[in-house]
Amino acid sequence: MDNFIFQNPVKLIMGRGMISRLSEEIPADKRVMITFGGGSVKKNGVYDQVKEALKNHFTVEFWGIEPNPSIETLRKAIALGKEEKVDYLLAVGGGSVIDGTKLISAGLLYDGDAWDLVLAGCPVTHTVPLATVLTLPATGSEMNSGAVISRHETKEKYPFYSNYPLFSILDPEVTFTLPPHQVACGIADTFVHVME
Asked: 155-177 in b/e burial notation, b at 16+ Cβ within 10 A?
């Protein structure tokens, strides 16, 4: 497969080794918060590629965005981002990490509780710029403006809409280490999201 770049409206950067382009895509003067899930990126080499690409950028890391991201976790990320004066976000993971980071991008510029933005039900356009490195193809979150956010305290789950990611890097080689059950779930998840 040849590497390529396609934009509609998210700039998709597709191919082997394309994570190295992060340093070209994210301005050097940005204060970047990188968001992650449970840590598989440290096992498959994606973490090292991201850190190498951004070695000349200011970065802070937030770990632990769970499947079906919760407002309880995302509040912690927003607090860290505000404390570190973050002005750019990079979601590294699957759909849940990307979904959660979409709310973080809006919450960083909001003075109230980010759950208010979810409950409002209308798209939030005042956000911190967001980009993604996809590690689990399934939801299409790297190419859309939607997310689903949960609240464990009240057992609620709602859609949330914000700005599209500026760009998304898709290196198919990072999916080679996915276990067979995740590949099967990803296929089912893709089908369900298309039908929705």
From this structure: eeeeebbbbbbbbbbbbeebbee
pLDDT by residue (tens digit) across 137-163?
767 899 999 999 999 999 999 999 999
Sheet containing strand 88-93, strands side by side:
4-7, 11-14, 167-170, 130-134, 88-93, 31-35, 58-62
pLDDT tens-place string over residues 2-59: 898 888 899 999 999 999 999 999 999 999 999 999 988 998 899 999 999 999 999 9
- d(C-alpha 188, C-alpha 85), whole Å: 39
Burial of 11 (0-12, 13-18, 19+ CB in 10 A): middle
Nearest CA-CA partner of 69 in 32, 89, 40, 98: 98
Two tokens at 181?
Answer: 């059950």
Strand partners, 149: 158
Going by their DSSP bridges, the two strands 31-35 and 88-93 should be labelled as parallel
69, 88, 115 from 1: Cα distances, Å = 33, 31, 42
Taking the C-alpha atoms of residue 30 and residue 86, their distance in angstroms, rounded to an integer, is 8
Q: Cα dihedral sign for 191, 4, 94, 145?
A: negative
- Backbone torsions φ then ψ of 100, nearest 5 degrees: -60, -40
Residue 159: closest CA among 169, 168, 151, 149 = 149
